[in-house]
Target: Class I SAM-dependent methyltransferase
Amino acid sequence: MVEQSLWMRKVADNPGHSAWYVERFRSMARAGDDLAGEARLVDAMVQRRARILDAGCGPGRVGGALAAAGHEVVGVDVDPALVEAAEQDHPGPRWLVGDLAELDLPARGVTAPFDALVCAGNVMTFLAPSTRREVLVRFRAHLADDGRAVIGFGAERGYPFDEFFADAAAAGLEPDLLLSTWDLRPFAADADFLVAVLRPAG
Ligand SMILES: C[S@@+](CC[C@H](N)C(=O)[O-])C[C@H]1O[C@@H](n2cnc3c(N)ncnc32)[C@H](O)[C@@H]1O
Model:
């Protein structure tokens, strides 16, 4: 067993949290808001019909958009209520309940490595801190040798960017491109957000 994620602690403290989160995105979708910015960046990085892992997929907005663009998507999230919403709102991808700190998709019949992994929406800051490095190790293990992971999260959320880069290096992932937004603004030392495109080291 791994330490419980900060997200599931929030859910334990407030059992309405997951339903609130699902409804928040459903209402933005009804309002016609743009919910696919992260997916557009990832779509531009890969060949058609790529294999993409949506890590911490939540209710499926990123993986759903990538599946709609023709990619083969697997989504994994620790919160069963969000995975159920992903199944309802974005049928098609394989949506799985699981903790990223224990990610082992070959054990669940998903054996081929991924061309890209996307981890959007501050997922890294909702992990149990003791599991962050292990999650990155598992990300690397699920990527093809020429695959890339795209991970986005905000500053001032308890996971300093320097620590993240050190954990990524220890996990065998090195920066390919660093951005401060999903619409391709360059990263700077004082950026309040990081979008890290990482590749397997070596
Ligand atoms: C703010 S939501 C973002 C959801 C989705 N990526 C998006 O951008 O719409 C954070 C997500 O991280 C997931 N999460 C947090 N810790 C996790 C873990 N250890 N394993 C899997 N998912 C986790 C939560 O369940 C939640 O769905």
